[in-house]
Amino acid sequence: MRRVIWYVLLAGIGTVFAEGLSWSTPLVWISPFVPLIYGLHYALIVDFLLRRRALTIPALAVGGLVLGLGTESLMTKVIWNPPWDGAEDMPSILGLRIFAVFWVCATWHVWMSTAIPLALAFRSFGHADLLSDRAVRRILLLLPLTMGMVVAINQAFPWWAIPAMAANGAGILVLAWLYQRWGAPSELTMTRAARVMVWIVLVALYALLLNERPEAWPSVGPLIAGMALLVGSILLFWRVAERDAGAMPGPGPVRYDGRALARYLVYFSVMGALSMALAALLDAVSLVIAVLIIVIVSLVSTVYLLRLAWPNRRIVRLSWRGAGG
């Protein structure tokens, strides 16, 4: 049960970042189906890395790329035919929407859906010694970089997102209380039976959502290109996990850090306020500026991701040796 609570925590935090800060689902708690989709992916990604002692920032980031390309292709079809207004005028290559691939998948899902919230969750909720101070600084420097996307997608700022953000923050506190009440487990990997069950439910969800927006399915060429990207991301994830295997020296004592939780909530609040302020500003100025931000952030993110995943690259470790390790 303690491990179940832990993975529910990951699902809640990751979904708050992915869907809450992007305003795709501003109040994530009203749609349990969305955290379920994210949570199943998180469980498999984190379990896979923990079993190999390969929980590193590069591995988490590439895991986010797998999540992005998987959900935004077979589930939502966004990489081929985004549902938002004006999407038909967006540039594409081989039938793949450049914006969806490089921003939604290779930037937002990599950092804001996966690497940043999951790493900070480890730091904040019972396993503070997993992440070194240096790694935390790297993560928090990336946090403001990724916020440019919100202002481009949401030109008309929904002011009701302000109370939704507060509710999301309250949800994080509730999850923290539940997690501490049940007690933090020293072992986070899933049992074999649990892993099989997660796979069964996730495959069933993919099968169910294949029929979502059937009119958005592309022709054969773009479909093959999209599936090639997805398979390539899975192989890259496997390669990075194998490269970083053993990067964690060994498990340390479970330790809850209330100050880390406070810093986490402060950063979440600041990023939410920043995204709202930028959206309100650019809504009154020009879409050109928003697009420029998107292009710059997407290029930086994609280049940095590839640099982290490059073979024989020095590992950015999630240290088990203490907060100063």
Largest sheet: 2 strands, antiparallel
Give the overall form: globular
Give the low-confidence spans.
Answer: 318-325
Count of distinct strands: 2
What structural category characterises the helix and strand content? mainly alpha
Number of helices: 11
Q: Into which percentage range does the β-strand content fall?
A: under 5%
Task: Show the helix and strand layout.
Layout: H1 2-20, H2 33-51, H3 57-75, E1 92-93, E2 96-97, H4 98-124, H5 133-145, H6 148-153, H7 161-182, H8 192-209, H9 220-243, H10 258-283, H11 287-309
Antiparallel strand pairs: 1-2
Helix pairs in contact: 1-2, 1-4, 1-7, 2-3, 2-8, 3-4, 3-9, 4-5, 4-10, 4-11, 7-10
Fill in the keyword field for this structure:
325 residues; mainly alpha; two-stranded antiparallel ribbon; globular
Q: What would you say this structure looks like, in words?
A:
There is one protein chain. This protein has 325 residues and is mainly alpha-helical. It contains eleven helices and two strands; from the N terminus they run αααββαααααααα. The protein has helices at residues 2-20, 33-51, 57-75, 98-124, 133-145, 148-153, 161-182, 192-209, 220-243, 258-283, 287-309, and strands at 92-93, 96-97. It has a two-stranded antiparallel sheet. A hairpin with a 2-residue loop joins β1 (92-93) and β2 (96-97). α3 (57-75) runs antiparallel to α9, α4 runs antiparallel to α10 (258-283) and α4 packs across α11 (287-309). The protein starts with a helix and ends in a 16-residue tail after the last helix.
